[in-house]
Amino acid sequence: MRKITRLILLCLALLLVCLWGCATTATVQLRDKEGSGKYLTDERGMTLYHYKNDLDGQSTCIDNCIKRWPIFFRENLTVPDGVNTNDFSTITRIDGPKQTAYRGRPLYYWYDDKLPGNMKGEGINKAWYVIYPDKFKP
Q: Among 35, 41, 76, 123, which one has the highest count of C-beta atoms within 10 angstroms of its own C-beta?
């Protein structure tokens, strides 16, 4: 009887470990900004931006621009409910690296956003914007 109890406990422990390890966090999240709606972030809650001067499927932010606007890229992108996986793609930048794009527009971070939920890059030079999927028109 003790062997059966131990075996059952072992199986339950393995099941819990598997369930815990198999749980995944989406690599793109939606956060809510009161008065503005839901916007895109990475899995840590860091705000994602687009550059209005980018072309569809091509980044124009190169050289010094990338120092302030680091690229966002995830090889295996997962999204939460309410976000369409088909809205995301991967581009290859003219300077070589891959970058994740949303509805054809490359995604970036702002170097001065230090904490999850920071949106300090919003509206810089009237060219950099947070992505609100419900309002986004590339």
A: 41
Name beta bridge partners: 32.
38
3-state secondary structure 17-55: HHHHHHCCCCCEEEEEECCCEEEEEECCCCECEEECCCE
pLDDT by residue (tens digit) across 70-108? Answer: 999 999 999 998 899 999 999 999 999 999 999 999 999
- Determine whether 81 is exposed, middle or buried from the number of CB atoms within 10 Å of its CB (0-12, 13-18, 19+): exposed
Of 5-9, 20-24, 36-40, 113-117, minimum mean pLDDT range: 20-24
Q: With residue 98 as reference, give the H or E element that holds it.
A: strand 98-102
Going by their DSSP bridges, the two strands 105-106 and 37-42 should be labelled as: unpaired
| Sequence-distant (≥ 6) Cβ neighbours of residue 99 within 8 angstroms | 59, 71, 72, 73, 90, 91, 92, 93, 106, 107
